[in-house]
Amino acid sequence: MSNLSRKLIAVAVVLLAVLIAAPACQCESEQPIEKTDHKIVLDYEKVDDKIVWKKIDEITVWSGDTIRFAVAEHAAWILIPDIRFKLLEGGSDWVVTETYTAFRVEDGYAVIVLNECDEGSEPSEKIHYSVLVRHDSGQWEYVHGKNPPPGMTVPRKR
Questions:
Q1: Does residue 29 sit within a domain?
Q2: What per-residue confidence (pLDDT) applies to 22?
Q3: Of 3, 7, 19, 132, which has the most beta carbons under 10 Å away?
């Protein structure tokens, strides 16, 4: 084997190692990032014999944060106009298109995570998502009623 062949093989091995290692190192930071577990409970109360869904507070979601949607005995469809989320546990009928993520939560909960390798948007981004819930009577309703849907803010890089 000639000297040139050995050099080409060595360069190829180094390039291959860099290509394999680069994606694994993209999300590393010098300090560990503290992650937050958000909990969104889909529940209602009766007011004058009418069902009124409790308000869902806005949350701030950083890369790697989890969101638990708890529905108790209800069923819900969640539609998020963003594709950076992944299903961790619970939930079913998970669908990701080019523009949105949708999933079903029934008899319990679903936990999703904002993609850990996402470095955040520039500038902070507000995402309004829809929550369609079926309660005991079998009727489907939007939790937010005629108000704007619940929201989450995805901040810029930490």
A1: no
A2: 42
A3: 132
Domain that holds residue 141: 37-154
Measure the CA–CA gap between 69 and 36, rounded to whole angstroms.
14
For position 94, which CATH number holds? 2.60.40
Domain membership of residue 30 (yes or no) is no
Proportion of the chain in helix, strand, coil states, percent, rounded to 5: 15, 45, 40
Query: Which pLDDT tens digit goes with each residue over 104-149?
Result: 998 799 999 998 776 655 678 899 999 999 877 788 989 887 778 9
Give the pLDDT confidence score for residue 118 in this predicted structure: 63
For the record, the structure tokens of 15 come out as 């390039």
Counted domains in the chain: 1
Q: Is residue 100 part of a domain?
A: yes
Question: What CA–CA distance (Å, rounded) separates 44 from 4?
Answer: 74
Q: Which helix (DSSP H) or strand (DSSP E) does residue 146 occupy?
A: none
Classify 136 as helix, strand or coil.
coil
Q: Is 69 exposed, middle or buried (0-12, 13-18, 19+ CB in 10 A)?
A: buried
In a domain, 148, yes or no: yes
pLDDT score of 25: 40
CB-CB neighbours of 130 under 10 Å: 16
